[in-house]
Design brief:
The complex is a heterodimer of chains A (285) and B (330). With 285 residues, chain A is mainly α. Chain A has one domain: ABC transporter involved in vitamin B12 uptake, BtuC, CATH 1.10.3470.10. Chain A contains twelve helices and no strands. Chain B is mainly alpha-helical. Helices cover 81% and strands 0% of the residues of chain B. The chains are: A mainly alpha (285), B mainly alpha (330). Chains A and B meet through helix 2, helix 4, helix 5, helix 10 and helix 12 of A and helix 3, helix 5, helix 6, helix 11 and helix 13 of B.
Chain lengths: 285, 330
């Protein structure tokens, strides 16, 4: 399990899990789950397009993921965010369908792009993945305060002269970057599960944003490592285990939040502190 | 003139049985999706609407595995997902977003598992693609009556709930104060939407089901503020886009770069999105003109429409309040 080609798998999956934990925390905080689903789907279409013209698939993924992010940002200036996301995603997927119909061999390749091919990571993919991961994490650290402020209190951010829509665009582009590095490994559908389940659970367990991010990374690592190990032993698809574990962590987090709310409520203290730990402005200082 | 028409409409278009089925089923599904979609957009539930499409595909794969009718697989899985979202979903919009995401993630994982079993047991790796992208030109005629009947049922539920739905789209508190059972209304609508989207996904594919749910509804809500007019307009836009897309796909057999047709899903999505952008462009042009004229007299009115459009979610609230005004005048 830890020899030969599997070493690459463990390295890449670990990198993807760390980045997904960090970025996923903000996905959950900002209520951007739909965008986190749409951008990887857009990237998937890019891989199909790159395949068609014989270009590198990471390039295609990056171009289409960023195009999807720009599309969401452009359309949501004039309409509600989820409508914009839906329309941008549908356009990208339709282009993907078009590209797939122009090329002939697609079925198994499509499956691996959607659901991941974690057992087939080549050494040449390690460096680009690592570079993109560092870029994404550095970007999140640089934007840390702005991201927190615009997520928690957009009106206060506006009042302080922060351009909320630009921060949103920057965040979408970060999402596009981590998407294009993870789609070839864990697939378009699973990077999404990884960005939602563990961070959502982490938010229920920890009130402090920094602690929550660390916890999200830990849960995400546990999810990915368990999924790879079980998938290796049983030959069942890794995606199933990532989705199931993510949902299990989320439910555990909800149960914990409900339980501590009841306990706090019984002792007569401020009831909403644990449930909505970041909704007070104190966290942004 | 005859020559012109045979250039626009490829000979044999209306005679082909495949095309007839596609026009009939596509038109019905598109019209119903449009009506349901108006409420999905007003209530800010486009994400859930899309999620049902992807999740129901897992049901389709499961049905193939168990050798039961795919219709039950799609419909069953979608309704189960709606139940899960309702059970764990919370009232706050952000909590709902995450709850939808978690259910979608679990559904996609299940989908991966079922497709894996299908691939190893039945060697059908193409299932994922046909479910996701679908084709209006590959509808099996045996399921048509069941699909049309269930879709009509879902439409009837939404129409019965018309007024409470509108009120609770504006705000749960307002609706509750007027005697609407907000929780039940929301749950029933979610189930009806799940059924509609699942039926759309099985006939025309998951991409198109989202496109037809959100696109025509969003376009219609740009054209009119009255929800009833918007619902009718969305149904008309959806059906028209579907038919035009079918025609384009049929004509595309002679288009470059390959000598087989372009995917019908692509053609329909293109028509839907272009019409949305066209209507939106015309609307903002009108707003700009209006604000340009008003600018010399009163600066505040000139700024107002832009400020509303720029704020997050502010637009939804705007739609909602207009919806309430319209429902009062009804």
């Amino acid at each position: 399990m830890f020899t030969g080609f599997m070493v690459n798998t463990w390295i890449v999956a670990t990198v993807v899990a760390i980045v997904a934990g960090v970025v996923g925390f903000f996905v959950v905080l900002r209520g951007s789950s739909f965008a986190a689903h749409a951008v990887p789907n857009a990237a998937f279409a890019g891989a199909a397009g790159a395949n068609l013209i014989g270009a590198s698939s990471v390039g295609g993924l990056l171009v289409f993921a960023i195009a999807g992010a720009l599309g969401i940002s452009f359309l949501s200036r004039r309409g509600s965010r989820d409508v914009a996301t839906a329309l941008a995603m549908v356009v990208m997927l339709a282009l993907g369908a078009l590209f797939l119909s122009f090329s002939n061999e697609y079925a198994s390749e499509t499956y691996s792009l959607l659901f991941g091919e974690v057992l087939g990571v080549s050494s040449s993919e390690l460096l680009p993945t690592a570079v993109l991961a560092v870029v994404a994490v550095v970007a999140v650290v640089l934007f840390w305060r702005l991201l927190l402020l615009t997520s928690i209190d957009p009106e206060l951010a506006d009042a302080r002269g922060v351009r909320t829509s630009r921060v949103e665009l920057a965040f979408l582009v970060i999402m596009a970057v981590i998407t294009s590095m993870s789609v070839p490994v864990v697939g378009a559908l699973l990077i999404f599960s990884l960005m939602i389940g563990p961070p959502a659970a982490a938010r229920s367990f920890a009130a402090d944003p920094f602690v929550a991010v660390l916890l999200a990374v830990c849960l995400s690592l546990v999810t990915v490592w368990t999924a790879i190990a079980v998938s290796y032993l049983t030959t069942l698809p890794i995606g199933f285990f990532v989705g199931a574990l993510g949902a299990a962590f989320y439910l555990a987090g909800r149960a914990h939040a409900g339980w501590s709310r009841k306990r706090v409520g019984a002792s007569g203290a401020g009831a909403s502190r644990v449930v909505a730990p970041l909704d007070d402005q104190g966290a942004v200082r | 003139m005859g020559g012109f028409w045979s250039y626009v409409v490829e000979p044999g278009f209306f005679e082909s049985q495949t095309v007839q089925v596609a026009l009939l089923v596509g038109g019905v599904v598109a019209a119903i999706s449009g009506v349901v979609g108006v409420f999905a957009v007003l209530r800010g539930q486009s994400f859930a609407g899309h999620a049902f499409g992807d999740i129901s595909a897992a049901g389709g794969a499961g049905a193939f595995l168990l050798n039961i009718s795919p219709l039950f697989g799609f419909l069953g899985m979608s309704l189960v997902a709606a139940g899960c979202m309702e059970a764990i979903g919370v009232r706050r919009v952000r909590g709902r977003d995450v709850a939808t995401g978690v259910v979608l993630g679990a559904g996609l994982g299940t989908s991966a598992l079922f497709l894996y079993f299908n691939t190893t047991l039945h060697s059908t790796s193409g299932a994922a693609i046909s479910v996701l992208f679908g084709s209006l030109f590959a509808i099996s005629t045996s399921t048509v009556p069941a699909v049309v009947a269930s879709a009509t049922g879902a439409l009837a539920v939404v129409l019965l709930l018309y007024r409470p739905l509108l009120l609770s789209s504006v705000g749960d508190d307002i609706a509750a104060s007027r005697g609407v059972a907000v929780r039940v209304t929301g749950a029933v609508f979610l189930l009806a939407m799940a059924a509609t989207v699942a039926l759309a996904a099985i006939t025309i594919g998951a991409i198109l089901s989202t496109a037809l749910l959100v696109g025509p509804a969003a376009t219609a809500l740009r054209m009119t503020r009255r929800p009833s007019t918007a619902a009718v307009t969305a149904a008309a836009i959806g059906a028209a886009a579907t038919w035009l897309g079918c025609l384009l796909a049929y004509d595309s057999y002679y288009w470059p770069p390959v000598d087989h047709g372009w995917p019908v899903s692509f053609c329909i999505v293109a028509v839907i999105v272009i019409s949305y952008l066209g209507v939106e462009g015309a609307r903002s042009h009108r707003l700009r003109n209006a604000s340009g004229r008003a600018g010399s007299e009163n600066r505040t009115t000139a700024v107002a429409p832009r400020a509303v459009a720029a704020s997050h979610g502010g637009h939804e609230a705007h739609d909602g309040h207009d919806a309430l005004d319209a429902s009062r005048t009804d």
